[in-house]
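hi support,

uploading two proteins for the ticket. first:
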Amino acid sequence: MTDKQLAPISLIVGLGNPGPEYQHTRHNAGSWFVKSLAKIYNCPLKLENKFYGYTGRISISGQDIRLLIPTTYMNKSGQAVAAMAKFYRVPLSGLLVAFDELDMPPGVAKFKIGGSSSQNGIRDIVSKMSNQKGFLRLRIGIGHPGDKNRVTGHVLGKAPQHEQQQIEDAIDEATRCVEILIKEDFKKAMNRLHSFKAE
């Protein structure tokens, strides 16, 4: 799928794990992004059990957009996404999913359309959406610990203050770029986001 085949974004999902013990861990970077959008647009997020998550509704340039933070665990994220996409008849190309990315450093965020991913939440979404991969993703860099045996502790741990600030700065830039994506076009939003690197 090319950017010309992207439908207007109508569902933005932020991945993470539920519960206070996880809310400040790197694996929740996707949920931080949706919370950031909700805050900018003064949108309260409320728990809706039928969608297995916290939901909200915002409007950007007249475009009606649903927000979702699943309350399933990361590896069951597809349950929430599929339920909401089906209910609101969101086409795959109208979906944007934000998640933490090990393969990029803190302070960097990038858009990606389709493709494979080793991230458990993305893999579950693909499996629950009839194995279709062609949705837009927002990858939020959290860095790699350097050893695959330390990955679980890394993603489920809290970032040091400086790294946390870099992640938050990248999320802030990404929220601005999502507005450009919706108001203008994907290429302009991508070019701006991909040139950003938090200090």
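and the second one:
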Amino acid sequence: MDRALHLSSQGLIDREIAAMCGVSIGAIQKWRTGGRRAHEEQDRLRSCPRCHGRELDDAAYAHLLGLYLGDGHIVARPKGVYLLSIYCDNHWPGLIEEAATVMARVMPASMVSRRQRNGCTEVKSLWKHWPHLFPQHGPGKKHDRAIVLEPWQREIVTAHPEWFVRGLIHSDGCRGINRVRRVLPSGVHWYEYPRYMFKNESADILALCGEALDLLGVAWRFNNRNELSVARREAVELLDLHVGPKY
């Protein structure tokens, strides 16, 4: 079929191609029309939403943006191709599958693969337009450079803050149980309550997380310079609707 399509692209008529390939004229016609549609669909799916206007799955992109800012990076490969990698802890197989799913939804024609690393799984995809979707890409570590969203990214995050926060917390955060010791006249008492934590060395990324939590109406505060916390009962319950524990 590939040879027939190549000959057709060179201008040969179906009868000539059929004779050269040893198949019927009908088969050539089927390959030519069906193959062209398939190639056109692949070209459409490979196109860049930023460069060519292909429709972008905004919710999946907001999720992938959060994962990228938390535990992802982009590196250049030969022939103008870029590798997007998200690193997921092997303790959470559900998160590995979720990262692969949203990566495929953002770039449907690019194969998403996995590679085992020391204690984690690298979920990755090759595509020449990844830097166009993640303009925060640059040399060095994220906390050593400014991380500022483009206006079109802000529109997406504003429309889907729950997916953005999910990506951030499932990459660089957690939902855990906090234990507090209190000395009372009746003795020592321990209190436990669930809370969410998000830790990142980039002040810009922490600020973006806080802004998205504000959009969701989730109360939060800084625990340290590089860590924010969601601990109020109603705030945790609200965030449980969008994020939940790692799995």
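thanks. also noticed: The chain has two domains: 2-46, 50-240.
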